[in-house]
Amino acid sequence: MKATLVAVGERAPPWVAEGFAEYRKRLSHWLPLDLVEIEPGLRGKGRDAARATSDEGGRVLAALSRDTCVVALDGRGRMHSSEDLARRLEHWRMQGRDLAFLIGGPEGHAPEVLARADERWSLGPLTLPHMLVRLVLAEQVYRAAAMLANHPYHRAG
């Protein structure tokens, strides 16, 4: 099984890129994690945000293979503790499918992307910058994988 983070947005600031690379490296022997950056839709004065979101959605869907288990990050999704996420990761592994985590654009995901998602995951009630979400997601997936491997990274509880 391999995982992919499909994220709307390009050119992460160096601190995000470096942090993501660090967790990607740590995860490499448990769960290879790739990053696919999706070009944002055009926004601004005189532009239709719904059209931009729809354009992003089409590019996100094109980046997914048919058999991939899709987890959309969405504020209306299910929240997980770190222990819950480890159980979800074990469940996803047992399915024998590749896994894709999706981060939408400024207005969130297009309806067709949410319809394609197998699950929706919320990081909680806070509004976070989407670039920071990349880093939080990578760290939490690493934490879940470490828990499943009985690695001492996660010492809470």
From TrEMBL:
Q: Which GO terms describe its molecular function?
A: rRNA (pseudouridine-N3-)-methyltransferase activity
Query: Which InterPro entries does the entry mention?
Result: Alpha/beta_knot_MTases (IPR029028), RlmH-like (IPR003742), tRNA_m1G_MTases_N (IPR029026)
Query: Which reactions does this protein catalyse?
Result: pseudouridine(1915) in 23S rRNA + S-adenosyl-L-methionine = N(3)-methylpseudouridine(1915) in 23S rRNA + S-adenosyl-L-homocysteine + H(+)
Q: Report the GO terms under cellular component.
A: cytoplasm
Q: Which Pfam families match?
A: SPOUT_MTase
Which keywords does the record carry? Answer: Cytoplasm, Methyltransferase, rRNA processing, S-adenosyl-L-methionine, Transferase
Where does this protein reside within or beyond the cell?
A: Cytoplasm
Record Gene3D superfamilies: 3.40.1280.10
Q: Does the keyword Repressor apply?
A: no
Q: What EC number is given for this enzyme?
A: 2.1.1.177
Q: Which residues bind S-adenosyl-L-methionine?
A: L73, G104, L123, G124, P125, L126, T127, L128
Matching NCBIfam families, A to Z?
PRK00103.1-4, tRNA_RlmH_YbeA
User: What is the documented function of this protein?
Assistant: Specifically methylates the pseudouridine at position 1915 (m3Psi1915) in 23S rRNA.
Q: Which family does it belong to?
A: Belongs to the RNA methyltransferase RlmH family.
Report quaternary structure and partners.
Homodimer.
How is this protein named in the record?
Answer: Ribosomal RNA large subunit methyltransferase H
**Taxonomic lineage:** Bacteria, Pseudomonadati, Pseudomonadota, Gammaproteobacteria, Lysobacterales
